[in-house]
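Q: Predict the bound structure with iron/sulfur cluster.
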Amino acid sequence: MDRIVLKIIEQARSGEHLSRDEIAWLLSFPEESPESLLVVKEAKRLAWERCRGRAFVHAQIGLDSLRCPGNCRYCSFAQVNDSNSRECSVMDMDALLAFARLFSQEGANLISLMSTAALPFEKLLSFVAAARLVIDDHVILLVNGPDLSLEQAIELREAGADAAYHAVRLGEGYLTDLDPRRRVQTIENIQAAGLALMSGVEPLWRNAPEDELLDAIERQIGLRPVWTGCCSLTIAENCSIHGLKPASRSRARQVGAIIRLAAGSRIPVGGVGGVAWVDAGTDPRMRGRSSHHESLRRDMRETRRDLEKDGWLVAGQDESWAYCLRGVKPSAW
Ligand code: SF4
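A: Predicted complex:
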């Protein structure tokens, strides 16, 4: 076992910051090496301790499949990937409310409403306001959508959103048509508006440029989102991206674990372990998900069971709300 890795783990245990060089050292090990497996194990332990063994089931509803000017080359909704014959859609309000009710009843801790950058902001706002009215007060309502001005972020919060997902993605500005500075500005607007931030390192591909990956990991520590993590690149069939291969699941897990070690207890949720997702509605990665209510209910129950099998206790909706949004540890923890 590498001695420097053992020393870095010891540092993380005692709550010390990791330097960029130390993060780079951890990244240099192959994902299945004993060193990386130890990093993952230690990160899970830290995440478990930070949430007192609680895990969170999150649900995401894809709202539309419009032709998106964001033009992320890996996304099937990007205008550049479009054949014009593709059918575009916007979910109707009744369908959205049915999904939102279902996830709330099935105990989701957080419901994310995901849109393309082409969905008119007023429409997104109306979806947020309507969903808020049908879900439990303690369910965290998150928006995963376009770049936002400060005024728009405030409007979303006033309509009932609690949180927003945003990230400067790997490849931003060259694999996408989005300006990295505008992404950063949006993150600042989200936080200034009083919305909790979810962020992450994505989409991870094999041999992603080291400097960019280090910047992305360090950005997570600097931003101090409530939730973080790492996700591999997924390339939908119609995408115009060549030469990039998705990182393996274990490489994404290793990067998530390194974020957790570097963040210590400064980021409450995620990194590696303790969060699982169930998805409904439109999907830019075209993974062939089902939107049938019965199968979604089954997915929710199986997801809870899988987390419990891994030794987690699934947090109640009021617990996750208090902990994630208020930073208050419920008395039972
Ligand atoms: S990933 Fe999001 S922003 Fe990028 S093209 Fe797809 S929908 Fe648009």
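A: The first strand starts at residue 54 and ends at 62.
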